[in-house]
Amino acid sequence: MSPKSWIAAAVGALTFASFPVLGGAAHAAAPQFKPVACVGDYKGVDLKVRCGNLIVDETRGDPKSRRIKVAVAIVSASAPKAGLPPVVYLHGGPGGSALKALPRMLKSKASREYVAIDQDWIFIDQRGGGLSDPNLDCPGTNLTDAGPPSDKDAQGIVACLKAFQAKGVNLSRYNAVEVAQDVQDLRKVLNLPLIDLFGGSYGTRIEAAIQTHAPRGVRAVVQDSPWPPEADWTVGGPAMVSSSIDIVMAKCAVVAECAQRYPDLKAKLAVVAERFLAGPQTVGGKTYTADDLGGYLMDASYFTAGVLPRDLWKIIQGDLSPVQDFVESRDYYSEGQFMTHLCKEEIPFEARADVAKGTESDPVARLMVVSMQRLHDVCAGIDVGAISKVEQQPVKTAIPTLFLAAEIDPGCPPELTRAASKGYQGSQVVIVTNATHGVSRSSPCVRKMIRSFFEDPTKPVDRGCLPAADEAMKFTYN
């Protein structure tokens, strides 16, 4: 069946179906797909986009379960190639969204180099976030990968999740295993014999769950900035951030202009970190905490390594505008969805007291200890059901998988990728020099690899366009 015909068949078959009211007691147990109007500004998008909701039981196997919606957008290939299945896109976070940013993505020149060219791409907002219903967002609270930036935020997230629970939300059903089953349900209702998977950041953790728990019909997998199940989020997390910043500062030190403009960055940043650890700092009438600075450093080393030396120098000189910009923009997750995942898949396998281990002589790493410990406090305050050790086990699979990792990544460092890939039979591992988190976004070479891999996942990808391992990093000074 051609890409266009399978979409038409799925939509046509379901147009006249009867759909239950969410929360109602009476409903069909089978998953369903209901076409809906797309949300967002798609003017200027020259690809065909259809939207809909995958309607499934919140709690599979429970005849009394309420129904929930998983938002879906199907983007038709501009030049479909026979024999290639659609690609299911899995966003990161957890607690992120694919559909909210989709119009902008489809207008991006970079994305158009590999998205929806010869394969349809299917984007989903994973249950509990984005345009899906319910959305476990907690307005008024802040949360980043480094954790809640204050005790108030942590307490607010706990209260928010308990309020969702009081309204009947089953918090034990918003995690990677359930999302994996949602992907399989979507495959079934759209009548797709095969699918490919593309995941970024925590989306790769969802891919791992699919490959472990629900691999049926999966032909090939691309992991961009992989986060494997066996990795520890908080234990060793502060050191991973500090290490990424060290890499950037070391690269600055061997570039003449960068080294001249920003001498002795490491020692000077350590002095600033110690000052923040001693107590909140007030600059320009605004007060900033160690949590604020630590969260900024993690966020900045994820995406903006090229300007990091410049901005670190600003901070060293007393200009905290980079930190202020971060503080004003850190409400980007559905906090409840983020925490139901972490409390099920990550935090139960780590000890709160161990978060501080190894940070004693590293003031930059210590900036993140308290906020990461708050993740443990949030998990202690909510019930996400039974925990399974399977969720911390390395993946073993024969599904062809392409790993794309950045040299500089405080959350998903390349050493995790190298170790995890050993369980993936015949996998290919690409580490991109000078790149940061989300390598497909910044590297045309990687985008070519993605297309060629999906075209034939049995062939080695062409690495000839990658930067050399010793290539100097480019920095922005203005």
Comma- or semicolon-separated keywords:
disordered N terminus; 478 residues; alpha/beta; Rossmann fold; 9-stranded mixed sheet
Span from first to last CA? 53 Å
Output the structural class. alpha/beta
Number of helices: 17
> N-to-C SSE series?
HEEEEHEHHEHEHHHEEHHHHHHEHEHH
Which CATH first-tier class of the largest domain would you pick?
Answer: Alpha Beta
What's the number of domains? 2
Q: Helices and strands in order, then pairings?
A:
Blueprint: H1 3-14, E1 32-36, E2 49-57, E3 67-75, E4 87-90, H2 102-107, E5 121-124, H3 151-166, H4 176-189, E6 195-200, H5 202-213, E7 218-224, H6 237-253, H7 256-261, H8 265-278, E8 281-283, E9 286-288, H9 290-303, H10 308-316, H11 321-327, H12 335-345, H13 363-366, H14 369-380, E10 401-408, H15 414-420, E11 428-436, H16 439-442, H17 444-455
Parallel strand pairs: 4-5, 4-6, 6-7, 7-10, 10-11
Antiparallel strand pairs: 1-2, 2-3, 3-5, 8-9
Provide structural commentary.
The chain is of the alpha/beta class. The chain folds into two domains: 1-130 and 195-203 and 218-227 and 401-478, 3-Layer(aba) Sandwich (Rossmann fold); 136-169 and 231-392, no CATH class. Helices cover 37% and strands 14% of the residues. The chain contains 17 helices and eleven strands. It has helices at residues 3-14, 102-107, 151-166, 176-189, 202-213, 237-253, 256-261, 265-278, 290-303, 308-316, 321-327, 335-345, 363-366, 369-380, 414-420, 439-442, 444-455, and strands at 32-36, 49-57, 67-75, 87-90, 121-124, 195-200, 218-224, 281-283, 286-288, 401-408, 428-436. It has a nine-stranded mixed beta sheet with strand order 1-2-3-5-4-6-7-10-11, sandwiched between helices. It has a two-stranded antiparallel sheet with strand order 8-9. A hairpin with a 2-residue loop joins β8 and β9 (286-288). The radius of gyration is 22 Å and the shape is globular.
